[in-house]
Design brief:
about 60% helix, about 20% strand, alpha+beta, about 160 residues, three-stranded antiparallel beta sheet, elongated, 5 helices, single chain, 3 strands
């Protein structure tokens, strides 16, 4: 078992842990301040990637588990697939959110929403979940690069 636990396995485990934590921790925080008819109201919403099991975080959890299995089998060059899948899930989530927002603009209530948005201030703050996801993905890419080099030259890491 000791020969299975090397530096690349530890780095892959850390990247998977970062991704898992990033899924469950707050991803972004939105503060919406509305001033309408002389009344001011502010709401703060924190969004995580899990969203009670309805979000796309479940796919990232599967990719993190696959990454750990690949690391245990010492197939580090295959981590490119995990990294690409993770980025694909995140890009899909963002593009899907933008599509949902554009469909609201075409709704019959769009004019009402536009008139209300004139007096609305929205601020979006990145939270720790986003930073952990990015760090996990970057670390996974680093391990994949080292794994590719290790498969070409056995002297890089023991």
């Amino acid at each position: 078992m000791k020969d299975r636990i090397n530096k690349l396995f530890v780095l892959t485990s850390a990247s998977s842990l970062f991704i898992v934590l990033g899924v469950f921790l707050p991803f972004i925080q939105m503060k919406v301040s509305i001033f309408f008819m002389g009344i001011s109201n502010a709401q703060t919403v924190t969004v995580d990637y899990w969203r009670h099991g309805d979000g796309d975080g479940k796919y990232l959890l599967v990719v993190a588990a696959i990454s750990l299995i690949l690391a245990f089998l010492k197939k580090y060059k295959w981590l490119w697939g995990s990294a690409v899948l993770s980025v694909g899930v995140i890009v899909y989530s963002i593009s899907n959110s933008l599509m949902d927002a554009s469909s609201v603009a075409k709704s019959p209530y769009a004019e009402l929403a536009k008139s209300m948005m004139k007096n609305t201030k929205v601020s979006i703050i990145p939270r720790e979940g986003l930073f952990l996801l990015v760090a996990g993905l970057m670390l996974m890419v680093v391990v994949a690069v080292i794994g590719m080099n290790k498969s070409k030259d056995k002297s890089i890491m023991p």
